[in-house]
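Q: I have 444 residues here and want to know how they pack in 3D. Can you give me a structure?
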Amino acid sequence: MQRPLIAVLIASAFLTLTAQAADLVQVYQQALANDATYASARSSLAAGEERITQGRSGLLPNISASGSNLRNDGYNAGPDGTFGLFLTDSRTKYHSNSYTVSLAQPLFDWNAWQTYQQSKLVQATSEATFAQAQQDLILRVAQAYFDVLTAQDNLTSTQAQKVATTEQLASAKRNFEVGTQTITDTHEAQAAYDLVVAQEFAAINDLDNKRTALAVVIGKASGELAPLRTGVTIEPPSPAAVDPWISSAESQNFSVVAAGLNLEIAKREISRSRAGHMPTVNLVANRTHQYNTGVNAPGTTANNNAIGVTWSVPLFSGFAVTSKVRENIALEDKARNDLEATKRNATQTARQAFLGMTSGLAQVKALEAAEVSSKSSLDSNKLGYQVGVRINIDVLNAQKLLYSTQKDLSKARYDTIMNGLRLKSAAGSLREEDLQPVNALLQH
């Protein structure tokens, strides 16, 4: 008798675990593993980390080896073109084996030096770009998560309004049958019911679209999500002034950092292109070994060792170097303007997010008060409808106002939380740990 009971308890526990709603941190962990955009950024980082090694290679020794192993067999024909008829015919047959080992160490190569300096900047740029991709993933996951919750709230509110409208329609029909209300009340209730049914279909479609958008980020269907707890308190931004956030955005925003590095790379490119007018000096050393043997000659061996310095000075290249310098000067100016545009965009984003968060907190507070007032208004209209001092449309309007206020309140909370995350992202301080306070606001 105990085995079936134990099996039921285990099955119940399993169903409880599988039915548990996923929270924001869990969804983010899924996105880390499955998001294709983030995976692409991670691969770009891995590629960028190889640039320093490649750039340094131009400053290190270049060692090479070459050789040959040849067997030759031939003859010289006599005057009549035949072999072996005259003493003037001769046969050649020999074996040659040789190899050369060479070493070249750059002593002065301005192009290689600037390339190495650029490689360090390129790797730093890839790191900044990847850090920005990490922040973008946090924002995309949070936005998709709260978009689903917003669509769920809209659907829940619409369905609650449908239930209330259905009750009002049934009440209006009964009252019309007994003669206490006119047909107008019935038509108004019917129109309200038809409208809310249409809104329900739209809300279902919107929820499906939002779930699909979240699935694109996390790589699979999201399932149920943990909603926001009732009456949560959202912390205001710290510091409470906008200027520190703007200052941080101008210097620490990862897009600004990457743009600044691109400017430094452009400056190095000018110097690298000017290397076309500069000499190059290399230390060279090589060893050559050759062994020959033939049918008419004993084996001979030749060895040669050489060490010294080689140099090369460009004299004229058809004005190509001068043109390349002018091109790179223009590209440096472009990079400088791109940096300024990126700074302005970062400061604008930080200011908008800060104002959006502060105004959102005020909006949440006002909507919380409006929700209380709307509930009182609905209760009063229901009571007035029961005693005959209010008509059916008054109750419907009060219900619609309450549901609309509740939807606006939920949306204001989601937007305020997202503006807080965007503010940290614009300032370059958004980290995975910042999801924990947001996650604590959810109903687990």
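Q: Anything worth noting?
A: Confidence is low (pLDDT under 50) at residues 1-18, 83-87. The radius of gyration is 40 Å.
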